[in-house]
Batch of 4 targets.
Target 1
Amino acid sequence: MLAADYPFLDVLWTMFVFFAWVIWFWMLIAVFGDLFRRRDIGGGTKVLWFVLVIVLPYLGVFVYLISQGRQMGERNAEQAHAQRRDFDTYVKTVAADAGGGAASEIEKAKQLLDSGAISQEEYDRLKQRALA
């Protein structure tokens, strides 16, 4: 019954309107996120952009995207590179703290043996424990 009252083109139009609405909010959130993340402009300029986007939403968002679109992409790329660099640094520090496995333990034991801190029997014991 319901399908007869709601033709196919109306379904397509409703889907189009719904996705346009979702995309609109996505763009609005992207603009606000970029606006509040920026460090190259002061608070007064941020407030002016914010008021423009709130008072004239479509015009404000489109003007912001046209005037700041390239810089938004550059800022997003810089942020992604910074996050990647921080993650790589974190992984390297965690991997270094993990000890590096048997080869690292044997190397440390060899350094202790060479410095005279341990005897040959202690070195052999540490080597066997690392290889086990």
Target 2
Amino acid sequence: MAITYNFRRGAEIDGIDPQTAGEELARITEHHGNLTAVVVVNEARPDDAPLHPVFEWDDAVAAELHRQLQADTLIKAVQVVRTMDEPDEPVFVKVRSARNYQPVEQVAQRLDLYEEAFRDACKRLGEAQAALEQLVAVAARLNPQMKPRAAKAAQIVGRVRDGLPTGRL
């Protein structure tokens, strides 16, 4: 039975259709016995490789894009240390409509920016819940004794999500 592949909702992958990508990743996994980013990049290097169009092969451009990813990681990692009674908190939050990071204290004081950041956080929570539910479904089908842990996690995330306010604050 042939497998049909698709990209997850919200994924933006240019240069390849999901069926080709899925088939090539399955082939690489079978050939190498595992799947890592290093293996995928190495398999994609030849100009005629199915995954080649997905990657930036101009080293100067790729290096700059990599540095931008490192900057994103840095910005998201830095936190303000509070007292022992208060948790550490982020310094910056991404505001998608502004296409930049802004000080979290400023975002928290502006209702429009706060609502946008809140919606983005809720969306990520929903994505986490969907990933857990998919894991539960696969476990139920292939390995039922693995199902309870992921099912409990999906329920917890779902309860948290259900308890969040909806609409405008």
Target 3
Amino acid sequence: MGEELLQRIAPPVTSEPLSADGHDVVDREISDLRAALGEASPDQAFISAVTPGQVAYYHPNRYYDSLDSYLKAAADLLAAEYRAIIAAGFNLQLDSPDAAMAHHFIISDGPGPDPLDRLEASTDALNQALEGLPPEKIRLHVCWGNLASPHHKDVELSRIIEPIPRTRVGFVYVEAANPRHEHEWQLWEQIALPDDKALIPGVIDTNTNRVEHPELVAQRIERFARCVGKERVIAGTDCGFETFVGMQSCAPGVAWLKLRSLSEGVRIASQRLW
């Protein structure tokens, strides 16, 4: 079903200047999540938003004279959405699959700018959009596409990691549980994560129906704690359990079992680390 769905996706093309529209949609999403939380604080939840780089990657440009001008226009508009989410008390999750996917996944236009140059430019544009916002309320999520596919052409994290820690975010969130990228935890032994940032590693694979044992989850958490410090690790899932409607790799009931295992693994790791 996933491959058939991808074949039907035709991303909109940018053929005129980007403009702000749909602020009511953002406001409605904020209102709906606030209502769903009940008495819980919005600081315990996050709302996702795309990055300027993802906009430019996923929507082929037919208007702007350069990638930089396209990214700047996207950043100017997205800044308002970012501010609205944080002003409402929620945390902001910036989803940037383009950071990795631009190396192996082409959206209709054929090869574009060098992916590393694109990533540098996208990082600069994102920092522009985040200027003045509290980093401790923001996390950047980088993934290789939440698809149940071979992933054998995924770019190595080591090739794209350099610009990522210099984004104006408090948390760096990367996949680390699936069989293509789990070994990359060792990279964090070599990278000096800035003191003002923490790491959110994925310790649950969202593309399989096998439920991780809580002990395995705990072991994964402890690896990262040894690399960057136990106070700077927050356990997460690799990505969402369903990227597009109808593109489900993990059954809903299994997803809840996986989240229970995540919770139990966090408890085990915390007992051992503290």
Target 4
Amino acid sequence: MLNLTVFKITQGRYDLYITIMKALELLRFAKIDHWVSDNLQGYQRPLNEGRVSKAMNYLLYEEGNFPTSVLINVRGKVYYSPSNMIGDFGELGVLEVPDSALPLWVIDGQHRLAAIERATSKNPRFENFGVPVSIFNFHDRFDEMRQFYIVNNRQKSVSTDLAQRHLHQTIVERGEWGVAPFESEKKILAAEALDIVDLLRTTPDSPWFDNVQLPDSKRGIIKQTSLADAIGYVLKELTPTERHDVSQKPETLATVLIDYWNALKDIFPDAFANPQEYTIQKTTGCYVFHIVFPNILSICKELGDSSEDKMKEILTVMLNNFAEAEGIPMDCSFWHCRFGNPLAMGTNQKTIRLLTYKLLSALNLGPEGSEAI
């Protein structure tokens, strides 16, 4: 059992216990809830080795103090005994943390703790380094994650892909109305798209299978954030009822998107066989074809056929019309990273919008200016 002398204050609905712990004691019980692909409910980003090394060197060779408190949470039941009031806003007391309530989950401060641990291995005096600690007692892991999200996303930098995961969990827990006053529509749509992203990247017959870069990895041809943001444009075109249905059954939309991208794969086989060499599955192609998708699907629905073959047929007409209108070939070479068309190589929003506009214009033109479909 941990017995800590604490200063207890109440902020909003929550009690906060402020104390000092020896580094060795804190490191013994501290644990990090990292987000990794097999722990999707985790919320902590991976350690940044550069930050840890700088902080360790600061401890060993510079001022050597960490005045800001490490923020932790105890998920289990704790026992607090007051001993003395201080003013009208807080009191001194003893906080008992039984073994059953451990570990101490680190919400903010993992890099400082890692630096202290490494400094201790070089100089044992850091075992007694006094660490200011602020302790919450959230029983719900979600509340713990929310504190991390608020501290890191609103007060200092955190990777956007992990912040996107945090926002997604918040939407699942509280609904869109719970985040709408604080987040942009674009961020909300991208976060809602993560369920679809996860289906696209884990379905074996999807062109995106194992090709999406996650928060805990640098492997993949496109970042999770970019793919989710692009799919957000698809969600934006849905009615509120349709969006609700997709949130309840994301596989309905994911399945159609997989067929859509497989149709594109049939049209541009070399580009999909060597995705690193082409931009069709990178930022440009990903955004352009997801923005175009609702129009393709709308035509399919009018024809009563949303199959992969029908989408391929409509896409082929659109791409042929584009090639004729622009006087350029629309084949795999168009998307090549180094030798492709400038419209396919640019990643800025202006270029993406221009290519999208040209493709959508081509969608409505037949070989002689008539309706294509």
